Structure formats: C-alpha cells, structure tokens
Amino acid sequence: MTAATLAEVVSLMESQYGYIKKFDHWVDGFKAQPFETENAKSLSKAQEHDISFCNLQGDAAMKAIMASEASYIVCSKGLETEPGFMDWSTQPRKMLLFVDNPRLWYMRMLKHFNMTFRDKDRVSIHSSSQVHDTVTFNGDVGIGADCVIDPYVTLGLDGFGYERNEHGVFEKFPHLGGVRIRSDVDIGAHTAIDRATLPGDYTYIWDRCKIDNFVHVAHNVEIGYDTLVVSHCNIGGSVKIGRACWLGMSVCILNNVKIGNRCILGNRANIRKDVPDNSVVVGEDQIIGKVEEKEKWTRLVGPPV
Asked: Are residues 154 and 251 in the same domain?
C-alpha cells in the first residue's frame, strides 16, 4: 500500500485530467499531510486529514460539506458558483477540489495510489453461531452470537458500483469496507450481502433479523433490529431500514431510501421514496394505512419502539 500527500494527489490529477481547481484558502499547512487507505472516508465518517467526495448538488451539497470534518473534499464543478462556497471564514479548514465527476475522480485517486490494497480476509465468527461450510467470505466480516447462516450465502463481496468515464466506459468503484452481522440473525440460502464501500464503513444486519433465501443486500445497507425480510427482496445501496419491519416477497427498494420503524412493505412493493414510521406500503410507494389500524398488520411487526 502506497502513502501519498495531498499535494502529490492534486499534482497527478492536474497533469492527467487537467480539470481540477483548488479552493484552499485555509489549508496551506495540510498539503504535506500523508494519508493512506484508512484516510479515504465517507463524508459522515471523515475526520481531520481524511479525504472524501460529495456527489450532491445545491443546498444538499452545502449542508453535507459543512457538516463533514474531512479536510479534503472532492466536489462537482457546478458548486463553484454557489454563494456559500465563497465564504469559509467560519468553517473548519478544508480543501475543496472541484472536478467534472467527483465519484470518478475519487475512484481514480484510490486506484492510482494503490489505496485499494486489501489485507487478507478478516473473518470473525462467534463460537455459538452455525455457519454452513459453503458460505463464501471476502474481506472484513464479523458474525455475532447465535446466528445461523445457511448454504451458499455470500458475505462481503464487492457491491455493484460503476461510473462511466469521459469515454463512456465503465470504471469500477473499489470496495474497502466490511460487513457486520449482529447476534441471533438467520440468513437463508443463496443470499448475498455486499461489503460497504469505504474503510470504516459497514453493511449492518442488526440483532434478531431474519432474512430468507435469495435476498440481495447491497453495499452500506443497514437493516434494523427485529426485521424480517422474505425471499427475493432486492435492497439497494445505502438503504436504511428501521426496527421491527416486515418486508414481503420480492420487495424492491431504491438506493438511499430510508424506511422507518415498524413498517410493512407488501409483496412486490416498489419503494422509491422514504417511508415514515408505522406505515403499510403496497405497489408503487402507495401508503394504505398505519400498522395499528388492523390486527393482522400488528402481528407482522414488533411492539412499538
């Protein structure tokens, strides 16, 4: 694994891609700071001297960048004209790097400086858990107490993350995070749970979750305590599912959607928008009631959180 300084990163990218503009009024002392794989973090997890990226636009980007403690943040060129970015007098010291495609730039930075180096698989399984011999592990996977992992489950493989470059060709986003399966979790046969994207991030399956066969859980997902997921569900990247939910057969949830606590998602529901607590959803984002309205619904979810 190769260490680099930010000055080296910027120099390389300017020479290779030619479209980086620095906005660095307060970061002169940071430029020689070395960073390695562990310094590549998501905006929400980054600390001083870490480098992250922001794919958001407008006010959403402004809020996310200001809230982050990252020292270096790769941003979209379109943000340069946002008035708020012109006044950093009250903000922590940051360097913003404005580029055409922040996600693509960030991927290339990780790859060029060999920050995609991975240690050998680090798998931790509690002695009370039952894990079938055919289960496949990759990277950093932890399994808590009293879990049952059925045949042909895959844990910790890379998520499905690609970005088109300037030539229209896909480049793969490296996955460096892990998977955490907490206690008393059941996972059915042929289910796949992808690793998180960046170091320090995890795909979480919290305590007492029950996941059926042939379920796909994408990178950076969190499934809350006491939630049940029926077969053939597809849960997109960075989805957050609350406690004590019930997901029916073949539910599909779009990337980045948040599902509240004690929600019921009916068979084959297609969820593209956030769902508030205690909702019953069917079809295309159609909320048809609250779980308390019918006794047959309350039986499917856990007690009030």
From this structure: yes
Closest CA to 55 of 105, 19, 16, 112: 105
Q: What is the pLDDT of residue 6?
A: 60
Q: Is 148 exposed, middle or buried (0-12, 13-18, 19+ CB in 10 A)?
A: middle
Which of 297, 286, 225 lies closest to 261 in space, CA to CA?
Answer: 225
Query: What is the Cα–Cα distance from 209 to 184, expressed in whole angstroms?
Result: 7
The whole-model pTM stands at 0.86
Token digits for 183? 């206690």
- The per-residue pLDDT for 84 is 63
Instruction: Kindly list the catalytic residues.
Output: 219
Mean pLDDT of the chain: 85
The CATH code of the domain that includes 73 is 3.40.1390.10
Range of the domain at 54: 4-112
Whether the pLDDT of residue 256 is over 90: the answer is: yes
pLDDT of res. 120? 61
The order of strands in the sheet holding 95-99 is: 21-23, 95-99, 72-76, 51-53
How far from chain centre, in Å, is Cα 132?
27
User: What is the DSSP code (8-state) at residue 53?
Assistant: E
| Alpha helices in the chain, H assignment, sequence order | 6-17, 58-67, 102-112, 295-298
Is the pLDDT assigned to residue 25 strictly greater than 90?
no
Count of domains in the chain? 2
CATH code of the domain in which 264 resides: 2.160.10.10
pLDDT tens-digit map of 46-78:
888 788 999 988 888 888 888 898 888 888 887
